[in-house]
Amino acid sequence: MLSSDSSVESSAHREFGDVDIEMFPKEHQEKEDLIETLTFTQRLKHFTYAWYACSMSTGGVAFTLSVLPIESVAIITLGKAMFVINIMDSSSPQGGSPLATMMTNTTAYGIPNTGPWIIGALRVAFWMYTVCATILAIVYYHVLFTVKKLVITNVLPGWVLPIFPAMLVGTLASAIAKTQPVESAAQMLVAGLTFQGLGMFLALMMYGIYFGRLLTSGLPVDASRPAMFIAVGPPSFTALALIGMAQDATVTKVFTEYYNLPGIANPAAIPDMLQLGALLSAIFLWALAFWFFAIATFAAIEAFPPKRLPSQLIGERLNSSSILGVGAAMGVVLFVLWLLIVFSHIKAVTHKMIMWPGKDEDAH
């Protein structure tokens, strides 16, 4: 037995005796030293699509601050500052979503501080955005269907992001229509409702796949769990858009001064029915959004901020100070979370946790 072991050892020595056992650690160290000397330009090669969510979240928090039921010059000033920051960091291949955020913020911060020209500018921008969002919604999914085959066990709510620019036409219409003449407002509201339905139904189809994945494959890996908060977006946006568009239909009087629907005996009652239906639908969708938020909260600690808290609109329509208080508290928490995420993001860059070889896209 000893002779056998000795022969094996001698054979191994003959075969590998000339190999320096320190070679591999040295090569590894050389690679580490090389990586340590990466310039910022070289690090930009690892700049990923996920970075562009910061533009959406910054604009979303700015708009949330503009609708908080708290009268404060400091909050308004802070919201304006974040609006400007949103414009400065808005270069994004996502294209649609950050632009929608900026246009929505323009109604809150731009109209009160500029001339009447901005009303017409917003109208032109809305239709240009709608055309571009339609093209993007078709092209994005065509590329996904033909260029790369996705694995069903890796499905995340982020798969619905390509339809977000189109879905935000509804949110945009709810923010802009009330500032427009009745004819333009009516056209915007029809377009908004159409695209909001498109986005919500595509999200519902994606939810079925996503829920099946959670049941059969479990939660995503830790690094991907913050993306679970994206599922909160579609029902929240839809609730926001429905209530906003119903209110705009009342303010602009589109059913009494523009549309003449056949078979409707009392057109003056349409706005009231729309507002009631929108309120009931928003409450219905709020529960779905809250459920997705709760599921994601148990899986991660960072959130994908929705653009405006539907809780505030529901509180306004129900005339409930309690719900308004909850909405205001959620808005404050949202801003604090945004600050925390900004700090964590900067820390991740400086500590080479992201935008670095072996991280980001290299880890998936």
TrEMBL record:
Leader sequence range is none
Specify whether Transmembrane is a keyword of the entry: yes
Membrane topology is: Multi-pass membrane protein
Q: Which domain of life is it from?
A: Eukaryota
The question of whether Plastid is a record keyword is answered with no
Please give an example of a GO cellular component term from this record.
membrane
- Location relative to the cell: Membrane
Where does the sequence pass through the membrane? 49-70, 124-144, 156-177, 189-211, 223-243, 276-301, 321-343
The molecular function terms of the Gene Ontology recorded here are: malate transmembrane transporter activity
Keywords from UniProt, A to Z, are:
Membrane, Transmembrane, Transmembrane helix
User: Could you tell me which PANTHER family the record lists for this protein?
Assistant: MALIC ACID TRANSPORT PROTEIN, MALIC ACID TRANSPORT PROTEIN-RELATED
The name this protein carries in UniProt is: C4-dicarboxylate transporter/malic acid transport protein
Q: Which organism is it from?
A: Monilinia fructigena
The top of its lineage is: Eukaryota, Fungi, Dikarya, Ascomycota, Pezizomycotina
